[in-house]
Each structure stands twice: as C-alpha cells, then as structure tokens.
Request: fold
Amino acid sequence: MDAGFLKVHFLALKFSLPEAFSHEELSAIALEALQIMDHYQALHPMYTSFQEYVRDRPEAAQFTSDWARKVEGNHPNTSFLVEVDEAASTDKQKVVDEFKQILAVLVIQCDFRMVQFYLGKLENIVQFPGQVTSLQGFTENRFFEHLFYQTVALIFGHWWFELAKKVKHESDEPYSGPSGPRNIASIEKRTHTYHTRCSFLFKSLEDKPEAVVNSIQPELQYYNLVQWLCALAKFTQGKFHLFIAEFDRLYEHILALECLDLGSETLLMYAVASIATRPFKDLNFNLNEALVDAYTEKAGSLELRVFDVLTLLSNGEFHAAKVSLSDEELLKRLHACLGFALLEEKESFFERLCRLIDQKAFLLILSLTKRILREKLLAMLGYAPGSAIYDDVSNKLLLLVSVLIVA
Reply:
C-alpha cells in the first residue's frame, strides 16, 4: 500500500518549529518533503520554504523554480470521474487506482475539501457494498481502503493541520454534491459493521493458498490504519481513557503505522495519556515487556526521555518528574512531534499536565497519610514558600479537597 503522501504534513509541522531541531535535521526534513512532492507531482503550500532551506545542498539541486512550475502545471485529471459517471459500465479497480493519484495530489496541496467531495462522488460511481461473500470479493471491494481515505480527509483536514483550513483554493467556491462522513463515530460504526459481516471469511485462512492470503493483506492493513487513526483522534479530543483502551487493544498491530511514520508519535501520546489518567504505580508498564522495549530500545530517543518521566512518577519522585517534563528542550521536541494532535498551545497543555500530576500526587499522599503539614506536602510536590506559584497551587489543592468533601 502507498500512503507516503501523508507524511508531508507531519514534516511541514516539524519544519515550522525550527527551534526544536538542528540545522541538519531541518535540512533532512525539508529535503524529504520535497522528494515526496516530486514523487507525487504535487506542491505543498510550504514548498518555497523547503526550497530556500536546502538550496545550497547538492542533492537538492533539482528543486528549482522550473521544477516547481512544472509540478504545478501537472493538475490532477478529475475529468475521468465525470466520464466514468456517464459510462454504462465501469472497471472499479481501474477507477479506484486512478482516483488514488488524484487523492495524493489534493492531500499534498491541503485541499481536503475537494478530497471529501471526490470521495463521495467515487462512492456513488463504483459502489462499495457493505457485505461480501468471498475473499476475492473482499479484496476487490476495497471498502476499508475507501474508509481510510475518508478518515484521512476528516482528521487531517478538519482536526490536525491548521494549514489545511487556512489555504484557499479555487475549489473553495460553494458546491453541491456528495460528501464524506462528518464524524469519527460514523466511520467507526461502518468499519466495525463491515468487519463483523466479513469475519466469517477469515476463520480458515491457514487452509488457503498463500496467494489468496496475501491478496487480502492490503485491505486488512487499511482496516488497522482506520482503527488507529480513529484512536488517535480520541487523543486529540481529550478522551484519554478511550485512547488508552484503543491503544491497548490495537498495540499488536502498531507496525501498521510505519507507512505513516506515526509509531513514535503514538507511543508519546500513550505516555502523555497515561500520565493524565493512570495511577502512578502503573506507569512503569512492567506487565508489558514489549511495550517497555518500544520506549527504551533507542538510546537518546524522545520516547526514552518520556519513559524516564513515567519511571520517576511510578517511583513517587513527583518533583523530579515535573522538572524533567518542564525541560524546554523536551517540550519543544514533544510539541514538534505531537503539536498536530493537541488542541491547546504546548505551554498551556503541558502546564495543565503538571498541575494534574500535582493533584494526583496530592490525593495519593493524603490517602497514605493520616496527617501532614501543608508546607511539607507542598515541598514533596516541589514547591517552596515564597515562590510565585506556591500560594496558587496551595489554594487550588485546598479547593480540590473542598470539592471532594462536598461530593
């Protein structure tokens, strides 16, 4: 399967936060983004910034103004959809394959509005039955692939990437026509229903020829990707409990995210959501060695640094954990990787996360101690009398106690 065109959006986000990366890292980001544009013959709105940054690199010599004009002139051929719509019969596989080329161009251009429009039109032209009776029918139906594109149009275009909302296109004129699902719940429902109806086909795969088994793998991979994207959307919505539940359920299929290069980001989201919702004693993930390995296998990685914060919290070292989590360099890298999925600015989001650590630690200490001086408790949380935030934290923790007493 080919979903490489989606990577350009994550690269563009990182490039827009230069304080988080070295010059060499930014050059690599810009060059990869340009190479993706060249491969799919489409220009992202930030292409000139990428060009400017790597103009002195020999391997970027081809990315000139002439190159950009040539790519810009390669408009996607959408007329075939009209021709197919008027034809007496259609070759579904050919139509979907040609549509994928249009999709890649529009996605890179940030024109998600037209992506949704053409997806709806495609569904009307070739039809995607909600039930099939054979493995061949399952492969040829490409229902999960279609749902994946709809999920991308919804999440990338409406939630994750502000640039997609700001960029204006000729297609921004009002139109009437088909459109895709309006929310994640409808996509999840369609995904679950179709998979349930097709589940009988997967019960005896070990008895099938290898070629048959291999033929259904792309659809199953799209199925996993749709589930993962819907799970990541829950993180963006702040539904951390639901995100954690989905992550735990889907973790054995996390390699499906490799085609989007989202494995690292997903692990970071899981760590952040766990800090916010799980008891401190559960934050070392000791019951899942494979998960611990995923965080710790690469020395110096962002995942390892965040896992160190989890370890500190699980050991009751609350102040040290907050100091680590407040490190400016770490916050810049986290924002560069997770900024697309955060509804708040990084300062307010991670500040609230630290205050949440205070509240959880405060309640834990109270549950283990019959009596403790306020000054000592605040000292355990890392606050010294006379500091600018000391009284504010103290008052908010007292307010928390009052709320709990009333409740």
User: Anything to note?
Assistant: The chain is about 65% helix and 0% strand.
